[in-house]
Amino acid sequence: MIQLIHVSKRYDQRSALSDVTLEIGKGEFVLLMGPSGAGKSTLLRLLIGAERPDEGQVFVHQKNVTTLKQSDIPYLRRKVGTVFQDFRLLPKKSVFDNVALPLLVQGVSADDISRKVTEALRAVGIEHKRDQLPAGLSTGEQQRVCIARAIVNSPVLLLADEPTGNLDPALTVEIIELFKTINARGTTVVVATHDPLVMAQANRRVLTLSQGRLLPEQGVSS
Amino acid sequence: MLSYLLRESWVNMRTNRMTTVVAILTTAFTLACVGIFLLLYVNLRAAAGWLQDDIKIMVYLEDRLAADSIAKVEQQLRSDHAVASLLFISKEQALGEFKAQFPSESHLLEGLGQNPLPASFVVALSPSFRSSGLVKRWAERVSRIAGVSKVDYNQDWIDALATVIRSIELVAVGIGVILSAAAVTIIANTIRLTLFARRDEIAILRLIGATTSFIRIPYLVEGAVLGALGSALSLAMLKLMYELFRQEMRTTGRFAGLENLIAFFPPSACLALIAVGMGLGVAGSFVSIRRFGEART
């Protein structure tokens, strides 16, 4: 599903990733660990074509992201669901409209949108909040909306960048269990985090980044 | 999807209501300035056209030319596609006209015993043959026709008219370009404010797989609507000014008769100007989107 071959990325003179080579198979659940500034977010941005590597090759779902044309990037992103620490919900749109957005940009019919959004909201347990605005939700609920938006078009890959960064331990456990459920349905899941609780709760393969370098693996294989 | 994109354009304009109104008004005033010059140009061009219609070329015939030779010259002139109209003036008619125009001088010709005035054709050329160079070439060609003694016309008058028309054209085009660029800038700035206000939303749309055109369409529609409304409003302002001007001329009696000669844009030109406004709006939008796009996530 994901392959990085000798990937390096620099911002000005600072090295964000240095000679990273890794492979993540279809259906895996992988934790990308490391302190702030280790290069976790940069790696995720490379996977969705938001950044291009200075050296090396990035493959996602058999596509070489490094050489992908700018006009083809949106089609790659439609196969990848993304979850953010700060949720990135549209404040003036209802929960339903926020979750419907990825389907809308793909030109899905209104009936299918209604069906798929309802399914996604049910999967994350907030179907009853569909007409509310994000401001009226708790942080845990906002993160669930963000996850619903990421899975609504049945992506092959789910990327989460510090998804529990704004949540308390109880909510963190809930969200990780949700990711496990999504993974159990066949979606490859990559969660970038620095939170040891996430690692303990997930109990899955761990890739550790330190100062842009990938350290030898130490996680439990699922 | 289309209804979503149109709804987004409407939401954009409603959210930035004040900016939208200011943009429409400023665009309207700018395009009204262009419109004033355009109206002036159209009317002066029409006036120049009437003056050009009055330019007549005299084709004088040799004295005592037989009727069949005159007929041959007439035949040749009539078959010439540069000739719009033709009027024959016999020696007798020429004398009659001279006496009518200069009654106090008519005794001068009586002393000569015979009529010295030549027969002639008064020719008006088609509009596409009225430029200075073409008239000159046509006159040289016609003067070589057998039976024609001389071709006479007022070269200075034709040259002066051509210069006036060219100057008006240049001024109108120059002012049109400058003020159109101003309209594009006004709309571009309005769209830039909208883009700035919705930058987070645009970043999210990009991350969830929206194509560039999906993101751009609402802003291009907004630009088109601003341009079209600004243009329509400028035409309404011009029409009002035009009617007030005619009313003023009628009531004061100054420039009597002129109020019936000056014209407003025909409906087809009004529609074309609204389309131009729409095009300027889209151009303004496009400029902002391109600049904004360079700084994308």
Characteristic terms for this protein:
heterodimer; A: 222 residues; alpha/beta; Rossmann fold; 2 domains; 4-stranded antiparallel beta sheet; 7 helices; 26% strand; B: 297 residues; alpha+beta; Alpha-Beta Plaits; 10 helices; 8% strand; elongated
Q: Would you write up a description of this structure?
A:
Chain A has 222 residues and is an alpha/beta fold. Chain A has 2 domains: 1-79 and 156-222, Rossmann fold, CATH 3.40.50.300; 92-154, no CATH class. Chain A is 33% helix and 26% strand. Chain A is built from 7 helices and 10 strands. In chain A, the strands form 2 sheets. Chain A has a 6-stranded mixed beta sheet with strand order 6-7-8-3-9-10, sandwiched between helices. In chain A, strand 9 and strand 10 (213-214) form a beta hairpin. The longest helix of chain A is centred in the C-terminal third of the chain and has 16 residues, at 169-184. Chain B is an alpha+beta fold. Chain B folds into 2 domains: 2-51 and 160-294, no CATH class; 56-153, Alpha-Beta Plaits. Helix content of chain B is 71%, strand content 8%. Chain B contains 10 helices and 4 strands; from the N terminus they run H-H-E-H-E-H-H-E-H-E-H-H-H-H. In chain B, strands 2-3-1-4 form a 4-stranded antiparallel beta sheet. In chain B, helix 2 (17-53) packs across helix 9, helix 7 packs across helix 9 (212-252) and helix 9 (212-252) packs antiparallel against helix 10 (267-294). The radius of gyration of chain B is 30 Å and the shape is elongated. The chains are: A alpha/beta (222), B alpha+beta (297). The interface between A and B is medium-sized, with 18 and 16 residues.
